Amino acid sequence: MSAWIGVASADHVGRGRQGGFMQVCHGKGGPLSRIKPGDHVFYYSPSTTMGGGVALQAITAAGRVRDGVPYPFDMGDGFVPYRRDVDWLDAKTVPIRPLLDALELTRGRAAWGAVFRFGIVKISEHDCKLLLHAMQARQGR
């Protein structure tokens, strides 16, 4: 089992949580194919809304990938992103700054935000456990 952090604005993460899915990298399917059923997924949200909004810099979601493969989803406006189904956990949004020195992904990096530039990043088991604990994540309903 692996763990991943995707990057999206908090409003987009909220839509995914509500719909039981995830998308990354502007809907590209390739990055989603690296994620496997049972993997943990988290989202880092640099802002509240895409293209700006209020700076947030927080981990905003935690979940487990369901069985299945990435699939195209027709949004009805000509945009057909790839998605994966996710069982989202009940988890608190947590600011990332207090975690920067504890996370192996960001420890010792002055330009820590650069690790998120590709839209999805694999993280260690240590970082997965740390985030689950910090978010007080637990199985939903």
Automatic annotation (TrEMBL):
Q: What family is this protein classified in?
A: Belongs to the UPF0310 family.
Q: Where is the EVE domain?
A: 4-133
User: Pfam families recorded for this chain?
Assistant: EVE (PF01878)
**Coiled-coil positions:** none
Q: Where is the signal peptide?
A: none
* Natural source organism: Rhizobium setariae
Name the NCBIfam families for this protein.
PRK02268.1-2
Q: What is this protein called?
A: UPF0310 protein JJB09_09395
TM spans (from-to): none
